[in-house]
Design goal:
six-stranded antiparallel sheet; single chain; 32 strands; ten-stranded antiparallel sheet; Beta-galactosidase, Chain A, domain 5; about 450 residues; 1 helix
């Protein structure tokens, strides 16, 4: 594989189909697309190669694997992190941050899923909704109770394995969990400050709740949650929704837990907890809101259906501002879109992006069609600090620009000399801009 400049890019096979003579018929491949321009694209080309894998690599590009056939534990790593796993239970036994030189887990196992009893309904944990009494989210929720709680690491399946490859290194495991099933995959990529985790659950129990546990060695840390267009410090031992991430740090080191559509976040005893799944139904209310007599809410019990969950870990030095956790959250929740095309002629360059923003703490969160052929761009300051002298450079001609309210109504014009906007933003300020752009090319 080669990028738009003709430089070779590491390639790794995910799945392959071959003809009888061993040549490739069909393949799904993985590669890392680095530094793709903002609101743009980069072109990569796959070309034939007659060379065979070397250096002990397998045909898919990976190196030797570890499994329970010969080992009880296995490790994966990149230049930033090293992780060791129990290949029988799936628990992460060690997570070491090489840059910060610290043991993240503090000797306790991580990426363990807990199943606990939860007799709550759709609106309330552990019980039925009690009017307005609990809506302030003030009820303490500490570490899981030992009674009625079962951990994914309590059962073994003997199917855990690790391998390393040119694009990613991976640990994976699947085994029974109660009457259901637990499976998890952990990946790290070279050059990426992020540990991606993909977990699958099949639940066959009623009135239970599943949470993933990630302990830390941090003492007396502070917990920050992302909220829409900002972040806020919140107390520990209380569950709150977090937009894309939760961070726990003592100012010199920290751990961010990124979520993709999993809003239930909590920290207790230095352990980060993320709610994955609840088995619940309506039980104590009169019939209303579509649940009339004869209409069941039992689908909420989530029985016998496989559910998948994506979350990620970002150990870091400093606090969440210095680690740019907000950027990691956006990247994790907005992955690149890959489009396969055949070779063809065209008037567009091999690599192009619509705009550049001069300061890393200013995020372009939305680009959308406006009225009368205009384009709407929404930006905000993501760290709670002023951003002065921000430049937004467009790579197409800008004929006019103005600031609008959230409904798209003009407030004031914005100069766009040399197709560049100059702005000052207050901490966590949101700005919406209406632009008229000339077509590309």
């Amino acid at each position: 594989m080669r990028d738009s400049s003709g430089t070779d890019v590491p390639l790794q096979f995910l799945t392959t189909q071959r003809y009888g003579d061993g040549s490739l018929k069909d393949a799904k491949v993985a590669f890392i697309a680095r530094d793709v321009p903002a609101f743009g694209y980069d072109l990569y080309q796959i070309t034939p190669s007659e060379s065979e894998p070397s250096g002990g690599k397998k045909p898919d590009g990976s190196h030797a694997r570890a499994s329970t056939e010969h080992q009880d534990s296995g490790s994966i790593e990149n230049e930033f992190y090293r992780m060791t796993f129990d290949l029988w239970t799936g628990e992460m036994k060690e997570l070491y941050d090489k840059a910060g030189h610290w043991d993240v887990l503090g000797g306790r196992p991580g990426n363990i899923v807990a199943r606990e009893q939860d007799g709550g309904d759709f609106w309330e944990l552990y019980g039925t909704l009690n009017g307005g009494r609990l809506t302030a989210m003030t009820r303490k929720q500490g570490l899981l109770p030992s009674v009625g709680t079962h951990l994914s690491s309590e059962q073994v399946g003997g199917a855990g394995s690790t391998f390393s490859g040119p694009v990613y290194s991976q640990f994976s495991l699947s085994h029974p969990f109660g009457d259901g099933n637990f499976a998890t995959t952990v990946r790290v990529y070279p050059g990426m400050h992020r540990i991606d985790i993909h977990t699958r659950l099949i639940n066959n129990d009623k009135f239970v709740r599943y949470r993933v546990l990630v302990p830390t060695s941090i003492e007396n840390g502070r917990r920050f949650d992302e909220i829409p267009f900002g972040a806020i410090e919140r107390p520990v031992e209380q569950e709150f929704p977090a937009q894309n991430w939760m961070d726990y740090s003592d100012g010199t080191k920290g751990l961010a837990l990124l979520n993709r559509g999993l809003p239930g976040n909590n920290v207790a005893g230095g352990t980060l907890m993320l709610s994955l799944l609840r088995s619940a139904r309506i039980s104590a209310y009169p019939f209303f809101g579509g649940y009339e007599p004869g209409v069941s809410s039992d689908l909420g019990l989530e029985l016998g259906v496989e559910r998948t969950f994506d979350y990620a870990l970002v150990p870091h030095t400093g606090d969440w501002h210095q680690a740019e956790v907000y950027k990691a959250g956006w990247e994790f929740n907005h992955p690149l879109l890959a489009r396969k095309v055949t070779a063809h002629g065209g008037g567009l360059p091999h690599r192009w992006g619509l705009l550049d923003v001069s300061q890393p703490n200013v995020v372009a969160s939305a680009l959308m069609p406006g009225r009368d052929g205009s384009v709407m761009l929404r930006i905000y300051e993501a760290t709670g600090k002023p951003a002065n002298g921000v430049e937004i450079k467009f790579h197409v001609p800008v004929s006019s620009a103005s600031e609008t309210n959230l409904l798209g109504d003009d407030i004031r014009p914005v100069p766009a000399a040399n197709d560049t906007l100059h702005l000052d933003l207050r901490p966590f300020e949101i700005r919406t801009l209406k632009l008229r752009l000339h077509p590309l090319g």
